[in-house]
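Design job #97: recover the sequence.
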């Protein structure tokens, strides 16, 4: 979001993202921007403006809320001065990011800590604990308009023991039995009930209880009831109810999650002795795998000032295993990796697993070269010992490293390691933390947010992504320029940042789990253009797209436009060939008649054996080959001899070779003389939205 004001604080400009955030059709130019700041935050904003005007060449960050209708909103803004040619301030520019969810989570954590502290310090009865919990619940779920709580009695039924906005004395005469049909005291997870659900339940009650619930309990007025059990060892011991009287959709998923969180705290306060051992272990264990978590590692981090390195490893292959084979197989693979890593680490080193990352604490390590040596050994052992047991695992993680240095506090090492990890886009990459990466992390955060906004329509009913489109670049015969087919290339024209290179965002699309949806949209658009122009089209496939369901999805697009598989070529990179599971999908596609092209040949790690196993139709030589030849190639150079050898390799394998990056006529003539027949590059045609010339460039 971008906003500009004059020196008096009056609006002069705001982009569409800001208008959408504020729910405005147009910006009220000339009005005070303070009207868009919550009253309690206006003094902070004014102080920030004063600092900017006093130091116009610096920028300052500030957080504040907006006076919006929805219960939660919070944004973080960078204030900078707009200066004239003489360097004097003439206005203020503010660039903002929505942090509402993070702010909401922080308020929940504060309220939770307060509830636990009061419950542990004071000798509260169960009814007092539940009453205190309701008070806290209205702070973390402010959309609630009334609430109540029931407690399981020794006799086996539930009674109301706390209320807010109701006559508790009247409600205490109501007894709820868990075994009653459609009982609101029967579910074991948080659930939102509608007026229809409540009316159905009340209709089954005897007249006395129904009158109490619909009278003092206002049950007939409730449009939405968020009910959450307090569960101990699989058995509900109490229930928290939050009610809203106006809308059935009042509560969102975060409300449900936060009330569930409060219910966990209540379980601890009421039944702490039973849960103490579970919670003690859970604090230091990853809940899904039972392995040590990052919290356990953080305590060890600050115990000594000896040299150390913290390493964060993310293995994207695990995400695929979880998605395709389920939590059970995923957890087993994680434990296998953990066992292997533990066996290779020294006794002083520590290992943890948290938030889908492996964490290695390497004691006594001072240099990046020492870390690299450890990682190389672990990589070699993982490939040697895990490949036979888990062939679907490609243990080639992205790695972020933070070395303990004077300028980094020990407790900040995890944040530093993650900042380094965020810079690594491709499997196998390693990044060592440097202070400037914090700024890079801010840019990455912006990209993640901007992509989520642009791609959201893909998951909200299958719409088109915002500001994304395809360009098409021709592949031509080198002899006469005849057009053979087109390659579809993804483009992102951001409304504020302009054209953003795919190299900056494609890896984030994969990392954030959007590639299957975005890739399917690309396939659909490319097939539609192939049908419109009567020309074959090639589409790049990412590794995460190569799932068993892909061939049927592609077939659906072709059937929709009446095309045969021969009209679509599918391009993959060498990295894909390292995964056995993906190979099986590619072989299925080849059997169905699709042409498979190996893209950017010469930049990956594939062997001739792997290439021979895949029924390829063509190899695309990375543009680095042609670049090494120079604009005027000479036949006697080592680069020219390499090209001749590659051409011979393609002929021996029975594959067409498409040469990328052809930019000069001299390069085209040289390649033609060396036996190459197909090429791509600016000389033969730049990427464009439409095809103007079918035959010759």
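Job complete. Output follows.
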């Amino acid at each position: 979001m971008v906003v500009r004001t004059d020196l008096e604080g009056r609006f002069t400009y705001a982009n569409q993202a800001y208008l959408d955030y504020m729910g405005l059709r147009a910006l009220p130019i000339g009005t005070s921007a303070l009207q868009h700041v919550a009253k309690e935050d206006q003094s902070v904003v004014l102080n920030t403006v004063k600092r900017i005007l006093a130091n116009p060449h610096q920028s300052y960050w500030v957080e504040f809320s907006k006076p919006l209708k929805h219960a939660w909103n919070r944004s973080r803004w960078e204030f900078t001065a707009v200066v004239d040619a003489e360097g004097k301030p003439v206005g203020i520019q503010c660039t903002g990011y929505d942090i509402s969810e993070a702010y909401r989570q922080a308020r929940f954590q504060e309220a939770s800590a307060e509830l636990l502290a009061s419950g542990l310090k004071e000798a509260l009865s169960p009814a007092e604990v539940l009453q205190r919990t309701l008070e806290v619940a209205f702070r973390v779920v402010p959309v609630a308009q009334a609430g109540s709580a029931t407690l399981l009695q020794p006799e086996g039924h539930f009674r109301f023991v706390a209320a807010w906005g109701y006559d508790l004395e009247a409600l205490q005469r109501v007894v709820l039995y868990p075994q009653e049909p459609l009982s609101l005291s029967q579910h074991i997870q948080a659930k939102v009930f509608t007026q229809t659900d409540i009316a159905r339940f009340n209709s089954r009650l005897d007249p006395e209880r129904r009158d109490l619930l619909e009278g003092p309990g206002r049950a007939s007025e409730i449009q939405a009831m968020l009910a959450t059990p307090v569960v101990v060892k699989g058995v509900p011991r109490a229930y928290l109810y939050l009610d809203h009287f106006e809308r059935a959709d009042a509560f969102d998923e975060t409300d449900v999650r936060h009330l569930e969180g409060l219910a966990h705290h209540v379980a601890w306060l009421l039944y702490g002795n039973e849960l103490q051992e579970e919670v003690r272990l859970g604090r230091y264990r990853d809940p899904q795998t039972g392995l040590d978590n990052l919290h356990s590692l953080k305590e060890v981090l600050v115990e000594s000032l000896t040299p150390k390195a913290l390493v964060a490893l993310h293995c994207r292959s695990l995400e695929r295993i979880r998605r395709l084979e389920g939590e059970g197989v995923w957890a087993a693979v994680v434990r296998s990796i953990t066992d292997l890593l533990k066996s290779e680490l020294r006794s002083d080193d520590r290992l943890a697993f948290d938030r889908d990352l492996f964490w290695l604490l390497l004691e006594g390590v001072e240099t990046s070269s020492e870390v690299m040596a450890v990682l190389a050994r672990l990589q070699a052992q993982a490939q040697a010992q895990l490949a036979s047991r888990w062939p679907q695992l490609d243990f080639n993680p992205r790695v972020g490293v933070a070395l303990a240095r004077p300028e980094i506090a020990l407790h900040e090492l995890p944040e530093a390691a993650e900042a380094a990890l965020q810079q690594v886009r491709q499997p196998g990459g390693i990044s060592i933390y440097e202070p400037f990466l914090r700024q890079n992390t801010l840019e990455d955060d912006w990209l993640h947010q901007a992509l989520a906004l642009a791609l959201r329509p893909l998951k909200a009913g299958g719409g088109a992504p915002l500001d994304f489109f395809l360009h098409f670049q021709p592949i031509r015969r080198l002899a006469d320029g005849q057009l053979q087919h087109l390659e579809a290339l993804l483009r992102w024209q951001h409304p504020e940042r302009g054209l953003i290179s795919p190299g900056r965002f494609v890896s984030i699309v994969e990392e954030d789990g959007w590639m299957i949806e975005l890739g399917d949209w690309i396939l659909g658009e490319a097939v539609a253009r192939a049908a419109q122009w009567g020309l074959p089209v090639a589409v790049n496939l990412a590794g995460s797209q190569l799932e068993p369901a892909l061939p049927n999805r592609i077939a659906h697009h072709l059937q929709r436009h009446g095309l045969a598989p021969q009209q679509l070529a599918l391009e993959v990179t060498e990295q894909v060939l390292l995964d056995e599971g993906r190979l099986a999908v590619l072989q299925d596609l080849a059997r169905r008649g699709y042409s498979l092209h190996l893209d950017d040949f010469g930049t990956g790690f594939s062997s001739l054996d792997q290439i021979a196993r895949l029924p390829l139709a063509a190899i695309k030589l990375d543009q680095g080959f042609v670049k090494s030849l120079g604009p005027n190639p000479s036949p006697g150079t080592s680069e020219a001899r390499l090209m001749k050898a590659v051409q011979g390799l393609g002929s021996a394998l029975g594959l067409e070779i498409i040469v990328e990056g052809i930019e000069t006529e001299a390069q085209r003539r040289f390649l033609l003389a060396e036996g190459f027949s197909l090429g791509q590059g600016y000389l033969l045609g730049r990427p464009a939205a439409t095809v103007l010339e079918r035959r010759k460039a």
